[in-house]
Specification:
Strand content: 25-35%
Largest sheet: 11 strands, mixed
Shape: globular
Number of strands: 16
Helix content: 10-25%
Number of helices: 4
Amino acid sequence: MTIRRRTLLIGMALAAASPAARAQQAAGTPGTGTAAADIAAPQGLPEIGKWMLTAQGVPSDWLGEIFEGKNLREPINVIILDEGATSAEDAKARLTAAAAKAGYPVRFGHSTGYQGSIGGRLYAQLPQGRDDAFSNNVFELDNNHGRIFGPHRMGDAYVFTAAFSREDVAPFRAVRHRYASFNQARDSFTQSLDRTTGYKVARFVNLDNALIGDPKFTTGDHDGIAVLLRAGR
C-alpha cells in the first residue's frame, strides 16, 4: 500500500470522528489499554509512552516496513520540555516556529493520524494537516521527518514527545520509501534546534524502548534513548 493511500485511509477515519471527539483528542484523552511494559517513568518527567501510536492506539509499524525480516516499531526518541510557554497553544506555536527555524518546517507527503501517550493521556500529533509532518526535506527526496505529541502540562511547564525517523527515497523503484534510521533523524532534529534556537539539549533519557532479540519486531538502529530538549523564556 502506498504512503498516499494509507494517508487517505487514516484521514478518512479521522474525518469520521465528531468535532467534539477530535477536540478532546487534541487536548489529551485518557489513555486506555496501554500495557505497563509500554510506559516509561523517567525521573522528573511524567510517564512517557514508549511508542508512536496509530489512530487505533496500537504501536505504529512504519507503514508495514519489514527490516531485516522483522516488523519495525516506531519508538519515541525525543522529549521536549518548555518552561517558558504561557499556555498549551503558546507551547505549540513556539515549538513549530523553532522547528521551522532549525530547518524542519511542516511539509506534506507523509502519513498522519498518529498519537502519543504522556502522563496517562493520549495526544494527537503535531502538525495536524492531512498529510503533514516536520521534515528537513521534501518527501520526494531522502529526509528526516517526525511527529510531535502534546503538550502535557506539568506544573508550569509543558511536555511534548516525538518520533523522528529517516527515510531513503528511490523514486524509480517499486518501494520508493524505505526506513533508514531512527538515531540519525533524532540527532539531526535535536542538534539543529540546539544550534539555532532556544531549545537546548539538556540530557538523555533512557526509555528502554530498543527491541533487541525480539523474534517479530525490531526498532532498527534505535538505542532506547530519547534526547531531551529544554526551552526557557
